[in-house]
Amino acid sequence: MRLAALRHVYEQPGPFATVYLEGRSPAEDAREQTRLRWRELRERLHSQGAAESALEALDDALAAALSGEEQANGRILVANEDGVTLHARWDAALGTGDGAVWQQLPDLGSYVREHARAIRELVVTASQKGATVRQLVIAEQHEPREVRADDIEGSAYEQVHKPRGQGESHGRIQRRADEAASQNAKDVVERLRKISSNFQPHALVLAGETQGRQAIRAELPDELGDILSETDRGGDGAKESDSALTDELLAIAERTSEHNASQRSEQWQAALAHELAAQGAQSVARAAEMGAVETLLLEPGREATREAFLLKTCSDTDAAVDLVATGTELDAGVGAILRYPVNF
């Protein structure tokens, strides 16, 4: 995650109320339950000295969201005396619970950790005629969230269905069908390149018909082949099969997230050996104030010392933020990969 995406929040004057509402399963009394949860959080903020104008702005923002399927979504809201500065989806790990705090800087640590853990999967359900391509975001312990779905029909669609020349030999008909399937695979991959360029997936998952998967796999460029996982689950429309595919997608996301964190820890160790890394709140803060931080590193379940300040300062210079593997044990829970060496 590039922290510049949060710069508009940090540019507003503090103090801020930061509210986290955990996602819950939809229920008939969901609206009332959310209202009661917010009332408790509101009282907590009031006792901390939150400005009434900020609380009223949060009242209005939540009132507009208290309906229907929105109750299944967790959310984060940030407000100051002038109004709401951030209202976004927050896919917290189940059981995280609600939270609210009034302080000089917004408390965005949990929000950026969720973003860093979330895995973008490009799921291709293949056939010989084309493919359905789904862009999914999978947060820890959550069902996949579909961002977009595209049905891609290959240019040789009719040839696959109706091979011309019924009097031709079986071999020639089969050859025409294979050529059509190959052309359709090329068409699918060409679209995948464009979709991938915008979506920037962590994983490409190939499902569906065996022949369709084989044809698409053969056409994949290296950058997509390197993140490829293949499964024979799902794609036939059966409920049990789709459930099995969802389980597979969750497993792939978990493996990918663990791999990414381990890789980031290795990158930090390598940078440390070349004097292009820092750890500890004081050293990282100094590097951040100099604009030297390329990637701010946090631990998954541990709040860093001066975390809110570090996130704000790094947002000014478009640093990224990411997570290291559990057990890395950064000094004060924070480290950084640097753009250039800094004398501490």
UniProtKB/TrEMBL annotation:
Region (Disordered) location: 160-182
InterPro entries: Bact_RF_family2, Ribosomal_eL30-like_sf
Biased composition (Basic and acidic residues): 160-179
Pfam family, any one: baeRF_family2
Source species, domain of life: Bacteria
Protein name: Rubrerythrin
Source organism of the structure: Prauserella sediminis
